[in-house]
Design a protein that fits this description.
The protein is α+β, with helices and mostly antiparallel strands. It is built from seven helices and four strands; from the N terminus they run αααβββααβαα. β1 and β2 form a beta hairpin. α1 crosses α3.
């Protein structure tokens, strides 16, 4: 399937979900959903996956739901009033672990914003513990700090620190000790959907972002090699 950009009709469809948020409505409009959301997303995964193989030959780009494509349904236990997502997520990851705890290239979009990111956007407990142990090595802390500084100089954004108290066993006077307070390691940028988003040119635009963030991807990937997240629960 050739990727021609994300159609404007796809964003219009997401707008419709906002005011028609029910499984019954989506079921009644399933053919349109497949045409303007699912098919372009699958084509994007295939095209971007080929580009990302330049950076990571083993990158996982699988155009299926619960792989590179996220489910359109929210967890019904927590979203009875709004069971359908109005934001579309796409992920490419490296490694044998769960996709959400693997170093990844990520994008999501909705009618007003596109977000492109690299890294891991939320550490589960096992990976958080591993991360804190991993950066007790000053060389690793310094390397991550320098990567962050380089990305900030290029105009990219970083997550705010999640924790206020220094974790047990971590020294607050260590060089770049603020890194112990992170609950995730990733960088991102956002932009408004425009003509580029609706054309093949979005591939080159997003690939350039991921390429700029490649050092961060590699750092995070090396971190995951030290962690077994099989005990964590995902949903």
């Amino acid at each position: 399937m050739h990727f021609n950009g994300f159609p404007k009709e796809g964003l219009q469809f997401l707008d419709k979900i906002i005011i028609n948020n029910s499984k019954e409505w989506l079921d009644a409009n399933r053919s349109e959903y497949e045409k303007v959301i699912v098919e372009p997303n699958k084509a994007y995964v295939e095209e971007m996956g080929e580009h990302l193989q330049i950076l990571v030959p083993t990158v996982k780009a699988i155009p299926n739901t619960n792989k590179s494509l996220f489910r359109i349904y929210r967890d019904a236990r927590f979203h009875l009033a709004d069971p359908i997502k109005t934001r579309i997520g796409i992920i490419f990851w490296q490694g044998s672990g769960h996709r959400m705890q693997s170093s990844s290239f990520y994008m999501h979009y909705d009618p007003v914003e596109v977000l492109v990111a690299t890294g891991i956007r939320n550490f589960k407990p096992t990976l958080l513990t591993t991360y804190r142990e991993y950066i007790q090595n000053e060389e690793r802390r310094t390397e991550l700090h320098n990567i962050f500084e380089d990305l900030k100089a290029k105009g990219y954004k970083l997550p705010e620190t999640k924790y206020k108290r220094m974790p047990r066993g971590c020294d607050s006077i260590d060089t770049h000790s603020y890194l112990y307070l992170q609950g995730a390691v990733f960088a991102y940028t956002t932009y408004t959907p425009n003509e580029t988003f609706h054309s093949e040119a979005i591939i080159d635009k997003n690939f350039k972002i991921h390429e700029d963030m490649f050092d961060l991807h590699q750092w995070v990937y090396e971190l995951t090699l030290h962690c077994d997240t099989s005990a964590d629960v995902f949903r």
